[in-house]
Sequence to fold (199 residues):
Amino acid sequence: MEPHANEGRPSEARSRLLATAGRVFYAEGIHTVGVDRIVEEARVTRATFYRHFRGKENLVVAYLNEADRSLRAEADAAVSAGLPAADTLRALSDTIARGIRSPGFRGCAFLNAAAEYPDPAHPVHRAVLAHRDWLLGTTTGLLALIREEPAEHAARHFVMLRDGAMAAGCLYDPVLVCETFLHGVEGLLKAHAETGTAQ
Fold:
């Protein structure tokens, strides 16, 4: 929780600030959007903004944390469906592909943020790394249910396939990108199940 956020249920103003930040940061980039723009479009006062966030950097971290929570919820839904691990990874891959094919797709919010905040010690960069650690850990855990060794190697391969699809999805035909991504995931699952390696 951000230091200036209210305890308990988030306020309507805070929710509007986060929704506005998420929309404009993702569409236009973080550094190009100032606090005044966020305040105006969220229809709050600057005093209200600073009641919830110490400053723009704090808002950026909250925006990434919100995106992280959303993606974790999607993953939890796939896992809780009780499918075999390979089908759960297919479901997660389908979710990624739907995102790439969605209107206004501009790549991975976390990779975009890391490009704008390259310092590994910066709180925004640390929020990106925390999300990616979760993604790698979740993928490793699922692949280990298929074949324990070498699950981490295969998981890194999966994350790289995902990263490549996210980068290509806003540059080329997203339908073809998703077909290539999903085909790559199938090949990875087959190789991992049969040999324990991801060639």
Notes: The two ends are 41 Å apart (CA to CA). The longest helix spans residues 56-80. The CA atoms of residues 15 and 42 lie 9 Å apart.
